[in-house]
Amino acid sequence: MKFSSVALAGATMGLAHATPLTERAGVTDADVLNYALTLEHLEAAFYQEGLKNYTHADFQKAGMQDPFYMNLKETASDEQQHVKFLTKALKAAGAKPVEACTYAFPATDVSSFLALGNVLEGVGVSAYLGAAASIMDKTYLTAAGSILTTEARHSAYLRAALGEAPAAQAFDNPLDFDEVYTLASMFIVSCPESNGKLPVKAFPALTMPSMAPAKTGSKVELMAAGGVSMDTKDVYAAFITVTGPVWAPLASTGNGKFEVTIPEGVAGQSYVVLTKGNKNASDDNILAGPAIVEVGEPNGPMGMGSQCSGGSSGSMTSMTSMPSMSAWSSMAMPMPTASKTMSSGSMPSMSASASASSTPVFNGASGKSMSGFASVFAALAAVAAFLQ
Predict the structure, then answer these.
(1) Angstrom distance (rounded) from CA 200 to CA 6
(2) In the record, which residues are listed under signal peptide (predicted)?
(3) What is the pLDDT of residues 147-185, one digit of tens each?
(4) What span, in angstroms and rounded, lies between the C-alpha atoms of 190 and 296?
(5) How many domains does the chain have?
(6) Please, is 20 exposed, middle or buried when counting C-beta atoms within 10 Å of its C-beta (0-12, 13-18, 19+)?
(7) CA 352 to CA 333: how far, in whole Å?
(8) DSSP code of 214?
(9) Are 40 and 121 in contact (CB under 8 A)?
(10) Second label for 365, Cα 20 to 30 Å away, from 11, 57, 69, 166?
(11) Does residue 314 fall inside a structural domain?
């Protein structure tokens, strides 16, 4: 059921009567709420673009049978309601809400759209979880927690639809402000001049070129962005978890490339960073990352529909034509290497030749998933190269 305007107004009034926006370690509650609004704008724009570009029939042809399409529309509506809620809450508290930016999403068919959507939902869950500790007022914390639980449902639904475990582990992984911004900034082309500066920056890129799902104990390759000089004697790999970093063996293979062994204690959509020293993983000592890796065995695609047949002919649609999320999530998204603060003037404009959305993926849902995702990865790499 959609969040009614009456309920939205009532909840916003409740936030308006909370204590004044307070500050902790240079980050105010207004900063946190605007940070959340920045992410919600991105997600809302992503779903709006996808539902504009792909029809109900397109999703059916890709193997996603009813009621998947209607549920996806509800997910899109949720994101729009989150934007409205946070915008009104900030205004009610006397703060200026950020406006939507211009975005570039490297998805040109249903398969790549859903794969990217699942990654964004997972990052959204980690973002809200990581930001919770910075919210001083309990009313704002409750509001953010209410959005977090909905984002988690979105994530679980898409994971199940694409063949990943809906809840891969007992605890979700939190990400700090800069870690989330590193992952999100690649989709932002430019922002309105009126948007205020948020206290965030992007770390140098860390990529995982392998498209294979990772298993505990297996080795995967990492590539640090050009210009990042690292002495592996004091560089470590840390997988971010709610109880702290899980350190993993790291070996240099030359030319900015490393091998890391997937440790025990991580599963599902996980995040790995390179750090200087192995005492902690914080903004002060993160050298590159995070990279995203999907850890665990795939469940097999479900389609999340009432039937398995697709198309008007009623013929069986092979769900193997739908790329497994493990193929996407095991690939890190390349990021800007410069440590930029997020402000109206810090986002570079993107030419047509560098635009992720201008890069073809593959023609139709029946295309080969591996080649399709290779093209998506190439589009993301083009964005990262442009932003560096």
Answers:
(1) 34
(2) 1-18
(3) 999 999 999 999 999 999 999 999 999 999 999 999 988
(4) 36
(5) 1
(6) exposed
(7) 20
(8) B
(9) no
(10) 166
(11) no
